[in-house]
Amino acid sequence: MFKKILIANRGEIALRIIRACKELGIQSVAIYSEPDLDSLHVQLADEAICIGPAVSSQSYLKIDRIISAAEISDADAIHPGYGFLAENAHFAEVCASCNIKFIGPTAQAIRLMGDKNSARDCARKAGVPISPGSDGTIETEAEALRIARKIGYPVMIKAVAGGGGRGMRIASNEGSLVQGYHSARMEAEKAFGNGAVYIEKFIVNPHHIEFQVFGDDHGRVVHLGERDCSLQRRNQKIVEECPSPLMSPELRKKMGDASISLCQSVGYTNAGTIEYLVDDDGNFYFMEMNTRIQVEHPITEEVYGCDLVKQQIQVAAGEHLSSYVVEAQPRGHAIECRINAEDPEKNFQPCPGHIELYYAPGGRGVRIDSHAYAGYPIPSHYDSMIAKVIATASSRTACIHRMSRALNEYMITGIKTTIPFQQAIMHNEAFRQGKYHTGFVEQLLRDGVPVMR
Questions:
Q1: pLDDT in tens, 442-452
Q2: What is the rounded CA–CA span in Å between residue 306 and residue 242?
Q3: Number of folded domains in the chain?
Q4: Which pTM value belongs to this model?
Q5: Which three-class secondary structure state does DSSP give residue 370?
Q6: pLDDT tens-digit profile of 240-260?
Q7: Catalytic residue chosen out of the listed positions 10, 227, 233, 292
Q8: What are the pLDDT digits (tens) for 348-377?
Q9: What is the DSSP string of 48-76?
């Protein structure tokens, strides 16, 4: 087992990894940019090293500084979390060349499956259904127009690297395609250092279903069910739940078997998530794979009774998948709300600043993953998520009521948050009946759903 792990990330996921390290008896090293000096992960790690200024390209994306921090601190492994360098194959290779274990899949698997275009090709070869689209990356505006005319509008322009909704644009005609093609490339280049994009048919109002997969170095691959991530705004997830209200046992088996088959075909190890679009008739299409731990992993942990981050570390150290993961069976229901420092009444405008009062909800079945606290200064340089509320109960109905109660208890002053909007979703009748899709949130906003206070 590792003696010391450097966490190449920030915020709540860095704190989540530090907690897993402590439970495994492993020393932790936090890295931080200058404005993150007061972040909780810096305070709770065994060691902390500043690696640069606020801008990510000079700190959290600076591979040489991160490796230097690992070498100075004698860390023998690096956990990348999600975002930043988590799906960067070159970073994984650099770690290996410096004899530092990268806690995640191999560089080869990241290249194959982290690149959305090659992932589609792997899925096609493994017999997993994919939506119509380009056979590779789109190099020119003219090529983009040709492909879109062939498969028909609307289409989705997507960055081959990264995630989080960046580098994605929907185009319904040639004008919006040209504009979206260039803006998606520029956004992807800025966010991931890779401006390559591809095009696929946009399926109107599908369900966004993702399967949690896990593989070890001994040839074992399992899945731990699905999460429904259809509640999104501008391709950014707001609320997720496990299991999906759409799912039947038959569809879960088909999608789970397809997910395992795809992982086995590329020799995938460690944690990953395979994402699908599913229509109302149960037809599913491979969308992409995230070769990392997901933001919403806690709802799978709560339903399946396992610790995915600890399992990541154990598998990276060469251990077999734990029996509690291999034999895990779902129990109950879990919902996660991502709490962002944004103002729902002002088009979700980011609200960086100092938190004045901070009181997190508690009680049975409520989990809070957060790096926030009273007095915490929220930087304007990074993602606006400050917390995740996870509610777990014996049934979906009970889980919705528990989440509503938890959101009502959550008190954060000094900034605006998305809590009132998520509270409104919990009270929405269509959501309560499980009748929603990827266009549901935008529809609520167009209809002027009242933001609860």
A1: 999 988 876 66
A2: 14
A3: 3
A4: 0.90
A5: strand
A6: 999 999 999 999 999 999 999
A7: 292
A8: 999 999 999 999 999 999 999 999 999 999
A9: EEEEE-SSGGGTTT-HHHHHHHHHHTT-S
Active site residue 292: yes
Residues 144 and 80 in one domain: no
Do 89 and 183 share a structural domain? Answer: no
Domain ranges, residue 344: 207-447
Q: For residue 367, what are the β-bridge partners?
A: 390
One domain for residues 333 and 436: yes
Q: Give the helix/strand (H/E) hosting 227.
A: strand 221-233
Q: Say yes or no: 246 and 301 in one domain.
A: yes
Provide the H-helix boundaries in 165-282: 174-192, 249-266
Tell me the CATH number at 277: 3.30.470.20
**Is residue 453 scored above 60 in pLDDT?**
no
Let me know whether 226 and 185 are in one domain.
Answer: no
Residues 6+ apart with CB under 8 A from 32: 10, 39, 41, 42, 48, 49, 50, 51, 59
What backbone torsions phi and psi does residue 79 show, to the nearest 5 degrees? -105, 120
Q: Are residues 58 and 167 in the same domain?
A: no
For residues 236 and 332, membership in a common domain is answered with yes
Same domain, 178 and 140: yes
DSSP 35: G
Contact 423, 408 (CB under 8 A): yes
